[in-house]
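question for whoever is on the cluster today: can someone run the full assembly for these? four chains, 700 residues total. i dont have access anymore since they changed the login thing
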Amino acid sequence: MSAESTIRDVARYANVSIATVSRVLNNSPAVREKTRHRVEEAIEALDYSPNPIARKLSRGRTHTIAVVLPLFTLPSFVERLRGVHQKLVDNAYDLVLYSIESDRQWDEQLARLASLSRVDGLLLISLPPNDEQTALLLENGVPTVLIDAHHDTFRHVIVDDEAGGQMATSHLIELGHKRIAFLSDFLDTPFHQSMRLRYRGYRGALAVADIPFRDSYHVCDTHGRHEARVLTRDLLKLDDPPTAVFASSDTQAIGVLDAAQDLNVRIPDELSVIGFDGIRDAEYLDLTTIEQPLYQSGIAGAGILLDMLRNEPDGMRTETVLPLNLIRRATTAPPPAGRAKRTGSRKGGG
Amino acid sequence: MSAESTIRDVARYANVSIATVSRVLNNSPAVREKTRHRVEEAIEALDYSPNPIARKLSRGRTHTIAVVLPLFTLPSFVERLRGVHQKLVDNAYDLVLYSIESDRQWDEQLARLASLSRVDGLLLISLPPNDEQTALLLENGVPTVLIDAHHDTFRHVIVDDEAGGQMATSHLIELGHKRIAFLSDFLDTPFHQSMRLRYRGYRGALAVADIPFRDSYHVCDTHGRHEARVLTRDLLKLDDPPTAVFASSDTQAIGVLDAAQDLNVRIPDELSVIGFDGIRDAEYLDLTTIEQPLYQSGIAGAGILLDMLRNEPDGMRTETVLPLNLIRRATTAPPPAGRAKRTGSRKGGG
DNA sequence: TGTTAGAATGTAACCGTTTACATTCGTCTT
DNA sequence: AAGACGAATGTAAACGGTTACATTCTAACA
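^ ran it for u. tokens below:
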């Protein structure tokens, strides 16, 4: 219906020029109070609101940020996205969402987004661009900020995953554990930088405590609760099973808990479990974990990007490190006193 | 960097008019093969890509859909959003995201979005507009589709929640349960239409089976796993506790399971639990549930909206009902044989 | 009262496309 | 070879704002 009134309609109605209307809209001080009133009345009367597209074209900025993230189902991504959303809404920026479900998509989408003029900036969550992509972005001058990814060129917000891995492992060691498994995603993909670092932290902590690393205690599969469950079953069936598992994410840690239940292994009496991330379910399940500020990482990343858009882009540190926090809860405890090997296999309830 | 080349640059380079370039861009048939080639070469050479903003302004359509949803943390919303995203990406539409975290926001955002020209259409997830909002949307002619919400005016995709409530309850009744509790959100808010309908289904099934409704078996709180846990503890401490709980969402059903564990009540031997939605965790936890096609609801809703934008808007049914599915899993079973009343209170593990 | 500076407003170009309409080109009749 | 007609291309006016610059007020001063 309503053929949306334009700035010209308002100008005509208020008996001023469109420039004046525009000034009122952008509250320029250079307009007399009386005139301003007249224009405001006209705006009111015509129920006018400026066409954002025209405005974007004219100003050359879109007031829109593209957010790209993978694996949209995982709670940690959602939590980060919430932070981003909040920050953008607060600053009246629009957020257009690109979820990446395959590697090819990632390349395609980035190529499309790189041609500026579509959005003012790019927020990449857990998706470090490769050299080619980086070149493309730089060439086109697209302001870009990464969340949960390291990068030489782009500003990024991260946590010290290696330190986190160390914290988690040390916590277990301090409790008296020696047989400590590490469960993670595959570590060789271009993503999962953080997982690799957590792994390094794990190795580091072992080394410091003079505990030899055992290959059989390091297990990988694609990310997921179910995958972790399966991996853990195997771990627990080893001749010399671990007394503690450090899972590289809470989602995976929950899978570990499932497996323990499957095999009737009591937590934390018989097996300690520590996760990483601090998603809601972790609190809920009383899971000991290394908590990272997920929501805050979204806030921070978006904040940095907005700063870049406003101020001169330089003079900021390129790396923002958010703090980690060991949250001791109910899934970690000293290892069982007797070193008896378990080979439990009774199937437990849901 | 690169001061993005424009259509004029291309025209100059190819020695044609901008109209011709535009024709090539929109593959109009009215351009000679030779000319087309020349233009394409120019485009290639200048690495040109059309400015989407200018295009939007000129065409009067934004090729963008706004998606509005509440409670962005809950998995069922995320799942629906994924479906929407997929459909929009497939059709090269942009998706701008508005998450609503409070009632006030809902009003504000809708008002902003109602002024067309910002987006081509609106997809509202679990957010039925009230009369005033409806009027606004109609007045401005914003194509709108609702997902998981009923409405007289707007096309919407739903499931038959009342039938679902009935299915769930009947399932329990058929297993032999008579003392069946219903756990849900508060039913009096403008949202939660579906919860109300599921409740009606519950009441209906009871009535059919001649089981009197008991007030004490109907408990409400705001949505959430924790809230459900607390409510359930109270339920189980009743003098005559239910032998089965129908939770109006899987998230809440999971809270019920938590409470059962707290009180050392065995599932399904001592208590049957059925949920609603079919989120991933439900499958994971072997939770019996009424599964609704969440992802599909997103696909369907977005599909309808896109159709509206393409074709003449009328001639489609306004209501799309997706099928429900009872998934029998491990959390429902016949009630315990002896009718002994339980008053368990031992605190269980995590 | 006539200047004049500075404030208020207006004019018109521009942002980068699409597209209605005008023009030119090539080809086919006759 | 002139005319006619359709196909190919060009011209210019939108789309709805912002903004540099030109113009007109207003008021203060000499």
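summary bc i know u wont read the tokens: Chain A touches chain B through 52 residues (CB under 8 Å). The mean pLDDT of chain A is 91.
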